């Protein structure tokens, strides 16, 4: 059997297993006008136990380990971009043995510059070069969609859906709920992975993550656990929101012309990760605090009992004051006399002037282990290219989730900053 036929058989096998999602297998979702297009995030590698039992008895599970590793290595290296990278996901869905080897072979975005599984969206981007994405805004439904690709002008088959966000306005704040599934953006869903919350003026934002920060990183106790009654507790619903970052926009009291000024403090990323040879915290799998920390309470237990459990969990979370968080600031634009406007070099990735456009760099001082060339690198840039189209390019140490939430803050109305 030729190598191409083998890959085709793997894809056919994946189709027979059914759809794959974050916990079951689902890469086939339709959304709005894009029929047949995947609108769930890059697929995970978890399978139901009964499916594993069936697949473990198949002939595919009995391949010699050396041959299997060689085959999977060829598939992983050959399928470097979406949609061809579906073959790698298909390999991980064959059986437990295939999944373990595939997970071992697939490198993090920091090392490979590729997004494969959903956890890749929580891992730092590549050190060399930027991960180029774009955001589509749906004004009617107050939703935002993040895609992997150069621009919306690409064919729908060559861009990959990553994340979706829905804006929820409240009396004193605005929430942006972020999900792995464009068709399911409710907070009680398994696809919910975090949120962005603004204050009343839209000048200060807090990024909340359902993923607990990696050990050794600073963490704010603020809103570590949301309090819910015992009737709402479910082992499948994320019950924790970790405060991982804060975004502040400078007030423009005098109403002077110019771009917005913002600063982002990332509590989950230490400033030392920018030094040469250092690495940023990198989660390897999704964690659910209801599975690790919160026991499911019976209906006989009261809300006060659950609140005490929640408080006990929050008390275990400490803020490491000895570790300085990474602070990002927007790169100062220059005034162009001929164009009579503020300008930044987006290297052709931004084509429409807007106060929403920005570039973020590290707010650190150069030193022996941190050369100025590293500080000059743009970690995140966001800009407008159409009425409801925007580009988002990020790199190490930000993840796709963190970059997306920072960009969402630029969409919010800021009367005190204009």
UniProtKB/TrEMBL annotation:
<dbReference type="Pfam" id="PF12937">
    <property type="entry name" value="F-box-like"/>
</dbReference>
<dbReference type="InterPro" id="IPR025659">
    <property type="entry name" value="Tubby-like_C"/>
</dbReference>
<dbReference type="InterPro" id="IPR036047">
    <property type="entry name" value="F-box-like_dom_sf"/>
</dbReference>
<dbReference type="InterPro" id="IPR018066">
    <property type="entry name" value="Tubby_C_CS"/>
</dbReference>
<feature type="domain" description="Tubby C-terminal">
    <location>
        <begin position="121"/>
        <end position="413"/>
    </location>
</feature>
<protein>
    <recommendedName>
        <fullName>Tubby-like F-box protein</fullName>
    </recommendedName>
</protein>
<dbReference type="InterPro" id="IPR000007">
    <property type="entry name" value="Tubby_C"/>
</dbReference>
<comment type="similarity">
    <text>Belongs to the TUB family.</text>
</comment>
<dbReference type="Pfam" id="PF01167">
    <property type="entry name" value="Tub"/>
</dbReference>
<feature type="domain" description="F-box">
    <location>
        <begin position="60"/>
        <end position="103"/>
    </location>
</feature>
<dbReference type="InterPro" id="IPR001810">
    <property type="entry name" value="F-box_dom"/>
</dbReference>
């Amino acid at each position: 059997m030729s190598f191409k036929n083998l890959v085709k058989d793997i894809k056919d096998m994946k189709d027979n297993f059914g759809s794959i999602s974050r916990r079951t297998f689902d890469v086939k979702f339709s959304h709005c006008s894009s029929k047949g297009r995947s609108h769930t995030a890059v697929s995970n590698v978890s399978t139901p136990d009964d499916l594993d039992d069936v697949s473990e008895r198949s002939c595919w599970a009995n391949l010699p380990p050396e041959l299997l590793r060689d085959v999977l290595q060829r598939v992983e290296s050959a399928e470097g971009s979406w949609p061809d990278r579906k073959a790698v996901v298909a390999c991980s869905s064959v059986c437990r043995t295939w999944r373990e080897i595939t997970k071992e072979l697939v490198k993090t975005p920091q090392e490979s510059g590729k997004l494969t599984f959903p956890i890749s969206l929580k891992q730092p981007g590549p050190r060399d070069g930027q991960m180029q994405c774009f955001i589509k805004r749906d004004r009617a439904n107050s939703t935002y969609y993040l895609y992997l690709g150069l621009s919306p002008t690409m064919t729908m088959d060559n861009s990959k859906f990553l994340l979706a966000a829905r804006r929820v306005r409240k009396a004193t704040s605005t929430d942006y709920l972020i999900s792995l599934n464009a068709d399911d953006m409710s907070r009680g869903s398994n696809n919910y992975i975090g949120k962005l919350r603004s204050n009343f003026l839209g000048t200060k934002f807090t990024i909340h993550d359902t993923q607990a920060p990696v050990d050794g990183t600073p963490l704010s106790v603020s809103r570590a656990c949301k309090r819910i009654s015992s009737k709402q507790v479910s082992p499948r619903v994320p019950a924790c929101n970790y405060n991982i970052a804060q975004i502040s926009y400078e007030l423009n009291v005098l109403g002077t012309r110019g771009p917005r000024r913002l600063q982002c403090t990332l509590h989950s990323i230490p400033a030392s990760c920018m030094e040469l040879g250092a690495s940023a915290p990198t989660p390897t799998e999704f964690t659910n605090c209801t599975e690790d920390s919160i026991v499911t309470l019976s209906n006989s237990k009261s809300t006060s009992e659950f609140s005490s459990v929640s408080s006990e969990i929050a008390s275990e979370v400490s803020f490491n004051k000895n570790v300085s968080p990474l602070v990002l600031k927007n790169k100062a634009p220059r005034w162009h006399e001929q164009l009579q406007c503020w300008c930044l070099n987006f290297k052709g990735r931004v084509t429409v002037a807007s106060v929403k456009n920005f570039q973020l760099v590290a707010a650190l001082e150069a030193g022996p282990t941190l050369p100025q060339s590293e500080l000059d690198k743009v970690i995140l840039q966001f800009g407008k290219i159409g009425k409801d189209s925007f580009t988002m390019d990020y790199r190490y140490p930000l993840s796709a989730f963190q970059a997306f939430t920072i960009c969402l803050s630029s969409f919010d109305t800021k009367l005190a900053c204009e």
